[in-house]
Amino acid sequence: MNAPGLLIGAARSSSGKTTLTLGLMRALMRRGLRVAPVKCGPDYIDPAFHAAATGRPGVNLDSWAMDAALIARLAARASEGADIVIAEGAMGLFDGAPGGAAGIGASADIAALLGWPVVLVHDVSGQGQTAAAIVRGIAGHDARVKVAGVVLNRVGSERHRRLAAEAIEALGVPVFGAMPRNEAVSLPERHLGLVQAGETAGLDGRLEALADFVEAHVDVGAVTETARAAPSPTLPRFAGEGARRRTSSATRETVVSVPSPVRSRLLPTSESMRKPGTPGLRKRGRDREGVLPPPAQRIAVARDDAFSFFYPHLAQSWRDAGAELCFFSPLADEAPPEDCDLCWLPGGYPELHAGRLSAAQSFIKGLRRFAQRGWLHGECGGYMVLGRALIDAAGEAHEMAGLLELETSFAQQKLHLGYRQAQLAADHPLGAVGFRLRGHEFHYATVLREEGAPFALARDAYSDEERPAGLARNGVSGSFFHLLA
Which of 152, 256, 347, 393 could cysteine-pair with 309, CB 3.0–4.6 Å? Predict the structure, then answer.
């Protein structure tokens, strides 16, 4: 059975979606409900807060990168064993980009595909009855999407609340609550968004305060009833659902959900990946639900405050297909386990820890040893660490692994943001030459030097022009591209 769900949306960014979402999640958990968290769109930071608020891993759903079957699969998986699904939207409810797999990447697409009603959180600072005109426009913009009600945010007074609420209710749209201006419940931020959940001091106390805040100003029961009252969508079951899972140690996590003969055929090892034109690579591709197979049988994944941008849905789908994930911490000067076939360096904040990473010689030398026998791949921050040097925001240069001819700088910052579609420039553990991937880019680094054969040819959502992206050399690859699907 699929749990009922709802989506927290807004007219724009910084309207209060995260405040309402986290407070609602923790409030429902305190009431004894099992809450499944979802984040719409490409985002690594919010899902970690969702997991902390609910005690369950989060999942990203993205209609630009994912087709409808994959979205349904991930939503069904997320709702297993849950009483309710709470999804946090991204930006404005209808914001997106053209050329997507199942939509434009808008949160509205996810609500429409899964039949989830939308609870609109609306920042009424600087307006009164005009809030009703905005709500009317949003509620009538897309017939696929049902706006079940509104929560006002940044209300200045009782009179302010009445002006906005009465005008909205006159439309026949319920107002579930009004949250006053209160900077005390805000979470700390930095250049890529919120400070990461694992780095936020007193996080549990902050989540409890958010739950108290929402309970005091929002009719939580009425909000959750909108999910229960919505027609329950029928989501397809997927291969591996209900499969038996086991954990073999604290750091190595193995899921057996396909027979061993199938697994050995699908998942390349370090020996097979070193052979050009490996038949196993050329035959690999997405399954009928759009799921990418694991890039290897045994995958070492860097995980700490410098390398935290690794999508949970990728990790879970790779486990479901029989891959083993081994986590290690570069900041603790740990080398990638040598019995793995591929090392995956996710994005994160290496620029904030460049000195420590450069001094972590067990880690750096371990990467160089691993490159002699296995495959190394870096995304964004991980890509920069595979290069020769990383210059931090203060202008200090730090020596990195030197496995790719790449030098990057945060002393000169420029925003790079948006969806990307990439096709592999050569055979790779992710697929054969020409295989297409969907993802995104979000960073402030400036490339000072990038020399060599590209990892992929990529284009953004607004152009048909494909440009070289990243580098690949002798079993070491990377780019600023974050893989979504």
Answer: 347
